Structures are given as structure tokens and as C-alpha cells.
Amino acid sequence: MLYGPLVGVYGQLTPASGWNINEIALPYGPQKLGISGAPNEADITQSGEEPIITIDGLSGTSLTLSGTLADDSKSDAQLWSDLIFPLLDLRGAEILLLCPISALTGTWTLIDFQPSRDKHALIYDYTMRLKKSCLTVVLTSSIYED
Question: Domains along the chain?
């Protein structure tokens, strides 16, 4: 199962296939994966005793993915039109994540996507944050509209 970091084979990156966001296939699997989520909890203090802890559901499970967007067969403009702009357009939307880790496959809300490039090579690093919810309410149809 390929869900770990990119694998170097004689100086080349080996794609980890199987990571899709809606119909967008990521060329490589993420190099870093983080998951977090804590319950909503509150302490009720009492004299002379340990506090009573109340739990009221989860604050939401967040998934952070970091990796690389690169494709030797594409120009910089093609990387932007085929990968980067479509992912930027999905911020704030519910997306379908398909990946080799079955527990992560499903519907998420794409909270943030941050591509960056600091080299002359056509390799973009990215970090994206997704969040699980029982309901997502979107109050605007596009983040680019005034």
C-alpha cells in the first residue's frame, strides 16, 4: 500500500498513486500526514475533589496533508490549470477524498490549500487542511466573488 512519503529510486521520485480529490489525481502521495481532533470538554470544579469532566461531542477531526505537485510532462501553466487552480477553487467546499487509507477515504471539507514554489524547477510544495463534519453550510457560492 503506497501512502507514505515519496520514494527516491536512483535520484528520481516514484509516484504514489491512488490519491484523488474529487476528480483531481495528485501526482504523488503526501509526504506528511497529520490527523487531529479533540472532544469538546469542560471541567466542573468541586471543593476537595478532582474536577468532573464533561464531554460534548468532538470539535471536529482535521486532516493535514503536505506533499509535492510536479509532473515532468506539464508546463508551469499546465500545472496551474490542471492541479493548482482546481484545488484552490475547492477551498470551502465538500470534497471526496479517495486514498489507499480506507479510514480517510470519504467526504471532507477542504479548509485550506497552500501551494508554494521556491525553486526554479517546476515542483510545488503544498499543505492542505481538511475537516470532517456532519453538516457543512456554505454561505457564498465562490470565494472570488465580492
Answer: 7-37+57-131 (2.40.30)
